[in-house]
Amino acid sequence: MGAYKYLSELHKRKQSDVLRFLLRVRCWEYRQLNVIHRASRPSRPDKARRLGYKASRGFLSGRWRLGGFGSMLAHDLQAKQGFVVYRVRVRRGNRKRPVPKGATYGKPTNQGVNQLKFQRSLRSTAEERVARRCGNLRVLNSYWINQDGVYKYFEVILVDPSHKAIRRDARINWICGVNHKRRESRGLTSAGKQN
Question: What DSSP string describes the chain?
Answer without folding.
Answer: --HHHHHHHHHH-TTSHHHHHHHHHHHHHHHHS-SEEEESS-SSHHHHHHTT--BPTTGGGS-----STT-TT----PBPTTEEEEEEEEE-S-B----GGG---S-GGG---SSBPPSS-HHHHHHHHHHHH-TTSEEEEEEEEEE-SSEEEEEEEEE-TT-HHHHT-TTTGGGGSGGGTTGGGGT-SHHHHH-
